[in-house]
Design brief:
Blueprint: E1 2-6, E2 9-11, E3 17-24, E4 33-38, E5 45-50, E6 56-58, E7 66-71, E8 76-81, E9 90-98, E10 101-104, E11 108-112
Parallel strand pairs: 2-11
Antiparallel strand pairs: 1-3, 3-8, 4-5, 4-9, 5-6, 7-8, 9-10, 9-11
């Protein structure tokens, strides 16, 4: 099982980024994927999650700005982030729990700054 996160970068406040989490070794048809983030000196925070039945949840801090979608054909989950704020700056990770084991990608840095 592997999760590969990508798409981070530097963006100005109000801008957008699209993160991707490419999964291998399992299919999104059966398992949920979640995005977390961790800023320096802060606790890890759950951002969004998509279940195998395509239902989703969001942290209050990103509702209305972030959208999580699944592409089962490419076995990839995307996190579209709009109206980005400096407080969104963090390393973003995608993760999955499969058969009792926890898997996490390497993280991608998102920096929101003018």
């Amino acid at each position: 099982v592997q999760l590969q996160a990508s798409g981070g970068g530097l963006v100005q406040p109000g801008g957008s980024l699209r993160l991707s989490c490419a999964a291998s070794g399992f299919t999104l048809d059966y398992y949920a994927i979640a995005w977390f983030r961790q800023a320096p000196g802060k606790e890890r925070e759950g951002v969004a999650a998509i279940a195998a039945d395509a239902t989703f949840t969001y942290a209050d801090s990103v509702k209305g700005r972030f959208t999580i979608t699944g592409d089962t054909a490419k076995n990839t989950v995307h996190l579209q982030m709009n109206s980005l704020k400096p407080e969104d700056t963090a390393v973003y990770y995608c993760a999955a729990a499969i058969s009792g084991a926890y898997y996490e990608g390497q993280g991608t840095q998102v920096t929101v700054s003018s």
